[in-house]
Amino acid sequence: MEGRLIYLIGPSGSGKDSVLDAAREALAKRGVRIARRVITRSAEAVGESAEAVTHDEFDRLERAGAFAMSWRANELAYGIPIQIDQWLAAGEDVLVNGSRGYLERARQRYPDLLVVLLSVRPEVLRQRLLKRNRETPEQIEARLARNARFEDSLDELFLLDNSGDLQETVDKLLRIIDR
């Protein structure tokens, strides 16, 4: 039996990496693998434990077919290793930190995709993004506006609010996966 692909999405600053880190052990006990992304962000950048590569190396890997999914956003390139297809074929569930912009293409490739949208109240997200200090206040406001439009346009997904306690969010994620 084919495994299930769990596609976690949410705006930058919603806490996807924190949720994944906090849920890692419980997910492993359920047999859910977390795919490690390949990103063209510097290794020193704060955030997820991704594999950092140069833009040239990313392009080479992409041309070689190393990714099951790949996209560009915010001047970075992101890839999900092709290895997830082997895990899924072996009947393992796989969770990926995906992209909202790539969602439709992901659904085409993986029609049984379980989509989980991590959301955060706008005022909480604004504070997280300001604290992170990667973008100007104007860029943050534009990001918040895009996020509101995106959430209004979606269907067939599980909405997971991460505005409060991290453990509550993790517990809700696990309940979604256990369905």
Automatic annotation (TrEMBL):
Q: Please, which domain of life does this record's source organism belong to?
A: Bacteria
Residues the record lists as binding ATP: 10-17
Q: Which Pfam families match?
A: AAA_18 (PF13238)
Q: Is ATP-binding a UniProt keyword of this protein?
A: yes
Q: Does the keyword Thylakoid apply?
A: no
Keyword annotations for this protein, in alphabetical order, are: ATP-binding, Nucleotide-binding, Transferase
Q: Which reaction does it catalyse?
A: alpha-D-ribose 1,5-bisphosphate + ATP = 5-phospho-alpha-D-ribose 1-diphosphate + ADP
**Coiled-coil annotated spans:** none
Q: In which pathway does it act?
A: Metabolic intermediate biosynthesis; 5-phospho-alpha-D-ribose 1-diphosphate biosynthesis; 5-phospho-alpha-D-ribose 1-diphosphate from D-ribose 5-phosphate (route II): step 3/3
Could you say which EC number(s) this protein's record lists? 2.7.4.23
Give the family this protein belongs to, as stated in its UniProt record.
Belongs to the ribose 1,5-bisphosphokinase family.
Q: Which HAMAP family match?
A: PhnN (MF_00836)
Function text = Catalyzes the phosphorylation of ribose 1,5-bisphosphate to 5-phospho-D-ribosyl alpha-1-diphosphate (PRPP).
This protein is called Ribose 1,5-bisphosphate phosphokinase PhnN
Source species:
Stutzerimonas chloritidismutans
What's the gene?
phnN
